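Final report, closing paragraph on structural work. Over the funding period we assembled a curated collection of sequence-structure pairs, and we close with a single example.
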Amino acid sequence: MATPYGSWPSPFSAADVAASAPRIDGALFVGDEIWWGESVPAEGGRVTVRSSTGREVLPAPWNARSRVHEYGGGAWTADADGTLYFVDAGDQRVRRLAPGAEPEPLTAAGARYGGLSLQRGRLLAVQEDLRSEPHTRAIVEIPLDGSAAADDDTVRVVASGPGFFAHPALSPDGSRLAWVEWSTDRMPWEHASLVIAALDAGTRVDVPTNAALQPEWVSDSQLLFADDPTGRWGVQRLTLDGAALSAAPEPIAPADADTGYGLWVLGNRWYQPLPDGRIVAVRTNGRDEVVLIDLDGDARRLDVPADAHVSVDDVSGSRVLLSGGGSGTEAGLWSVDIDSGEVVAVRGGRALDDRWMPPARAVSFDGPSGPVHAFDYAPAHPDASADSGDLPPYVVLVHGGPTAHASGAASAAIAFYTSRGIGVLDVNYGGSTGYGRAYRERLDGAWGVADVDDVLAAARGLAASGAADPQRIAIRGGSAGGWTVLCALVRGGVFAAGISRYGVGDLRMIAEDTHDFEKHYLNGLVGPLPELEQVYIDRSPLTHTDRIDVPVLLLQGADDLVVPPSQSEAIRDALAARGIAHEYVLYQGEGHGFRRAETIIDSLERELTFLGRVFGFDPTTGR
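Its predicted structure, as stored:
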């Protein structure tokens, strides 16, 4: 017997989604063990550190989370003897946890730290101090003897300034440090410099780069890093002659794919050199692939389950640690032996039943600025079906950033919808990473225009293909994706409903309220203020709420410093004044992105109920 789309019985509850595949936050080989960071939704999103032996290295209530640049990353590291170094979420101090001991502070209260790395017995980090104007940031070395626990003045500052820093890398002989830095008026994917400094002499070399990422020393005279001089991020080799560069950077195994990503957080690694000189690297062209680059420059694909947002976290001999997601597996952490081909799932990585979760279909649609890339997850159920003449409702997903990427990964969050008979189209609109610099720059000066053009083109193209009911397509996004949701609803004519999670509603408000890291982001996406103030007014959904004529669900974190609640509340008030059906939910204790299990559960259930009400199906039969 046929069951209407949206009402199929599903084994995927909102609670299952909240407790599903782990969110891995870095991984390391530690002696004979493997350690990894993991977010625990049931504990308010606390990030713990676990071991492959089954023990919890970082017990509650400790929470390893950095707030440097607000997005954090690199909040923990460890030495081979099993001593953990971590940034505590509560006060942002760096602490040391030795085996059998209690955590002890290594830095004083006040500054923030992130991007921790222990290199040749020296603890390096990115420091951020927001206590006075102007705000300052630095690459620092934190003394391991605890002498900086009472006074940050004893923390050694290697480089500092009003700009931003990432990826400190110490040469094998300890004499030089390389890092990435960028100015306050640029984003790191627009332009970031590679810097090499002699620690004793204080001399500094600025390497000509476009958008440098992740320096890694392979010897005292050779340095690897990622950059995109030809429009695609790829691994480059730099040779030094003393303190000078002996030649221009040399590309290693260039490809029509990206080894690199937007530098939103400090802990990601897109490649790792092996001890014998070979390189394991992630290449992204829509989906990820992991490749081995041999000494002669030839590259071959490795047969691993991970092909979505993959990070090459660590290397030990011929083994590497890969974290991320997969098109046929849940998110997880894998240990891969490059020589033997052995792949071991350390955490998560469970193969998914393709009757419930078939791999996403990579699709593209014609848009005003060129092809629009997306991943299509059609409704899937081993037993349920709808009447042959019916077409399914769809939710078009819009990722945040906007300089980010939808990866085509399988997940319980996607299956929550598709198993009930609701299709999902995940769109990589112009401005997304994973398709090269030209695709990324399609959004320059055109945020709120090009992204909206692309999601509208994708939704229309999907409906024209006969895959979706054109009268029952909703749009859902968070942060910058929430902005695109609201802008698309202002355009009208395509989407029957919208779901905005902590979305931007007013450009002038976000330009005034947002944090340092993104303070000038809008200069590239829209243009400078005050010269283009009228453009900011004209682009903002809040200016045109009179054009929104479909139901809207607004979900917001009360502690969001990136997109403050005032943004969602201004949209709520405007909709209420016009009598447009809407719902606004403010989640206490949540910041930018929902981490608590109870929030994840409530928000998903509200979304499903909202879609059922708008599209005319009974979601309770599918719970």
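The longest helix spans residues 597-615. The mean pLDDT is 94. We thank the funder for supporting this effort.
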